[in-house]
Each structure stands twice: as structure tokens, then as C-alpha cells.
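It is worth pausing here to work through a concrete case rather than discussing structure prediction in the abstract. The textbook approach is simple: state the sequence, then state the predicted structure, then interpret. We follow exactly that order.
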Amino acid sequence: MDLGIAGRRALVCGASKGLGRACALALAREGVFVTLVARGEAALRATLSDIEAMGAKGVMVVGDITTPAGRQAALAACPEPDILVTNAGGPPPGDFRQWSRDDWLAALEANMLTPIELIKATVDGMIARRFGRIVNITSAAVKAPIDVLGLSNGARSGLTGFVAGLARQTVRYNVTINNLLPGFFATDRVRAVIMAQAEKMGVGYEEALARRVATIPAGRIGDPAEFGAACAFLCSAQAGYITGMNFLIDGGAYPGTF
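Step two, the predicted structure:
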């Protein structure tokens, strides 16, 4: 399927590794000019090289998107994106009794306030041009909270509530806002979560991983490329009637009907 977004411009955050990288590659394959933002220069450069190797184009911005300076640099490189993919590393796992107020504020800054600031900076331009696709990478923890991820549970749920209202205001201008909720994919983040759960259960990493996989009906951890493809479709010309939705991609792990 031709997604109808060749020649569009995208700003993809956290694009050097994991799910952000997968989204950037999927968009680049569709002919989108991608601005990649992440903190790690070496990994970011490798992603850009992969994009150029497929004959696509992009630029990279090394910076921390959760800071005002990082957002300023990203928006200077891509001031009028047609597509915005917000993404930032999740806060560390742990026990809420050990978290300080500063820990909570850092989680909110990264996983709620930064996406809102980026949306605020770009959505009116999208409305004026009558095309915009905003995809927020949140977490399956929004739908089914994970005990060791309390900081993420709270911050990402706050973003979800905000998006639910705004998405209904922008869709009439062909600007959609949706959230992708990843379950367990083969990323560094998931490895850290599994390690935390292993320590809590008093077992080894491989045992903790096997127990987690046993709870996934698909019988495996997800491939980031699958996630990237879903993101690309939500950014497509054909997805203009989808907004304010939370798409859980977890191999069937969530047991509910709704």
C-alpha cells in the first residue's frame, strides 16, 4: 500500500534505538524526510546511515528532547513537520517508596510535558496546512499498569488524558493525534524492566524473561519493525479518520475486552 506521505517531513524523537528508530526507518521507507533526534551521537549516526542506505533522506540532531534546549534544536532543524513522533526513555523501575518529588517531576517532564510542548509548537502549523499526524509512543502500562513502573504509569496516563481532549479538536483539519502503547519488544528498555523483575522475584534474567514470554499469547517478544509499521500507517494519508485512539501492540498480552 502506498501510504501517501512521500515528500512529507517528520520529526522523530528518541530515534537512535529501539522503537523510535523503528518508526524513523518505517517512515523513511515511505519517502518521508526524517529529522532524527536523540542523545547518543554514535547510535543516531548509525540510524541515519541506515536511512541513507535505503535511498531515503534525513538529518540528525544530537540533543535531549526533554530539555528546552533540546526541543529548540530539534524544532530549528524541523520547524514545520507534517509528522511528529514523540518518544522519550521511560523513567527507571522501582518501588514508589524510594522515589522523591524530583523523580516524579523528571518522569512528568520526559513522558508528559515534553510531548505536550512539542505538540504545542507544531500543531497549529499542521492545522494551517491541513495535514498533520502526531503519534505518541507511550506504554502498555497505560492500559495495564506494571508494578515496578509506577513513574511511567502515572506520567504516561497524564499524557493520554490530555491527548484525548485535543485530538477531537484537531481532526476536522486533517490533523490526527494517536498513541501507540507498546508491550514487550526487543529493546534496551524491556531488558531493563525484565532485569528489575528478575531481581524482585529473586531469579535469573533468562528465567524472568521466560516467565514474561509465557504471559504473551503470541509466544514471543515483539519485533520493533512491527511497531514501526504500525506507526507509519497511523501517519498515512489513509489514517485521517483515526484520532484520539490508544493502540495496544502487545501480542495479545492484555486480557481485557476493552
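Step three, interpretation. Helices lie at 18-29, 41-53, 68-77, 101-129, 150-170, 188-201, 205-214, 224-234. The mean pLDDT is 95.
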